[in-house]
């Protein structure tokens, strides 16, 4: 098995420092993924990051949730056949869309914003920037514009020619799963326990539908009682928001303290038994789990969380990209060229 080469990269560009202090992170560069680099579009589309950032900023003005929705698209894309833009493909004669998979249907959103970004990018640099890279850039912009860290997004991915709905149904971690299953799903794509805890911290902003956590509120795992790891006052609040026979589509803040800001409060919430999803709270409440120490570290040190989150986003973005002559650069993110 090939070893990895650790390289430290920092951005000190004047533009970056004006926008936000960029975290210096140690990147693990895998030889098979070395074709991804932060300057991939330096000559072919030098303004791509600015175009994406401006579009995300505009979208945030009318939709406070959109940042969390966009990072989720990148996450759900990367966990299925790698970061290849497959989640963006609509149904066609030959494609069963990942949008209709269980983890995504009536849940993933922000596709219209991705289309708007793609249009703006195509107007500036036609047939150059992939939809997969747009998702990676939009995720970074969503985090940094919401008060979180900034990082140099590695670029050069190409877009898939197909989707994998079955893979989306089995590979994407579920909010109903136990910690061991979720850890296994992260491990299957080369991500470790620190990556799991850091990336879970993206639940520091955004919303969740009642149907994704109501199992914890009334009859958890067939006990006839609520999940015992739920803070009792928080439980009461959630039961009022999500009545037992409600529609299941009402929304709750993933972070009840600072719902639209990217910070480390998510981890303090876990310490207070205020994790919204079962998969959130298990990071802290699973006795003896390696995740507990990491949660405590991030809860007490936001800078440590931010640095780990940036590195873990880079790690996730490195999952099995299509590069070189593989795949294509879609002109419309919703469909394969020529279809």
UniProtKB/TrEMBL annotation:
Enzyme Commission code(s) on record: 1.11.1.7
One Pfam family hit: peroxidase
Reaction(s) the record says it catalyses: 2 a phenolic donor + H2O2 = 2 a phenolic radical donor + 2 H2O
Keywords assigned by UniProt, alphabetized: Calcium, Disulfide bond, Heme, Hydrogen peroxide, Iron, Membrane, Metal-binding, Oxidoreductase, Peroxidase, Secreted, Transmembrane, Transmembrane helix
Family annotation (SUPFAM superfamilies): Heme-dependent peroxidases
Record's cofactor remark: Binds 2 calcium ions per subunit.
Residue ranges of domain Plant heme peroxidase family profile in the record: 35-337
Enzymatic class: oxidoreductase
Family: Belongs to the peroxidase family. Ascorbate peroxidase subfamily. Belongs to the peroxidase family. Classical plant (class III) peroxidase subfamily.
Protein name: Peroxidase
Protein's organism: Xanthoceras sorbifolium
Organism lineage string: Eukaryota, Viridiplantae, Streptophyta, Embryophyta, Tracheophyta
């Amino acid at each position: 098995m090939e070893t990895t080469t650790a390289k430290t990269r920092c951005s000190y560009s004047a533009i970056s420092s004006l926008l936000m202090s960029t975290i210096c992170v140690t990147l693990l560069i895998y030889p098979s993924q070395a074709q991804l680099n932060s300057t991939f579009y330096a000559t072919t589309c030098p303004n791509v990051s600015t175009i994406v950032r401006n579009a995300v900023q505009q979208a945030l003005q009318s939709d406070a949730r959109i940042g969390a929705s966009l990072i989720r698209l990148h996450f759900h894309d990367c966990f299925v056949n790698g970061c290849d833009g497959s989640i963006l493909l609509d149904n066609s004669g030959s494609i069963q869309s990942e949008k209709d998979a269980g983890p995504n249907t009536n849940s993933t959103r922000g596709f219209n914003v991705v289309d708007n970004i793609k249009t703006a990018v195509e107007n500036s640099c036609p047939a150059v920037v992939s939809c997969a890279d747009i998702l990676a850039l939009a995720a970074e912009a969503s985090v940094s514009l919401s008060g979180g860290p900034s990082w140099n997004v590695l670029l050069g991915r190409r877009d898939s020619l197909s989707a994998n709905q079955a893979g989306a149904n089995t590979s994407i971690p579920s909010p109903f799963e136990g910690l061991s299953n979720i850890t296994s799903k992260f491990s299957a794509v080369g991500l470790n326990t620190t990556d799991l805890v850091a990336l879970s911290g993206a639940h520091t902003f955004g919303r969740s539908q009642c149907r994704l956590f109501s199992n914890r509120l009334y009859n958890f795992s067939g006990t006839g009682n609520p999940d015992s790891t739920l803070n009792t006052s928080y439980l009461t609040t959630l039961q009022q928001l999500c009545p037992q026979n409600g529609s299941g589509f009402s929304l709750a803040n993933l972070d009840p303290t600072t719902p639209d800001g990217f910070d480390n409060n998510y981890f303090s919430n876990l310490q207070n038994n205020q994790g919204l999803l079962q998969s959130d709270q298990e990071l802290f409440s699973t006795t003896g789990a390696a995740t507990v120490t990491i949660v405590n570290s991030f809860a007490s040190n936001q800078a440590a969380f931010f640095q780990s989150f940036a590195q873990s986003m880079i790690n996730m973005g490195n999952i099995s990209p299509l590069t070189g002559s593989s795949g294509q650069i879609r002109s419309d993110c919703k469909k394969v060229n020529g279809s």
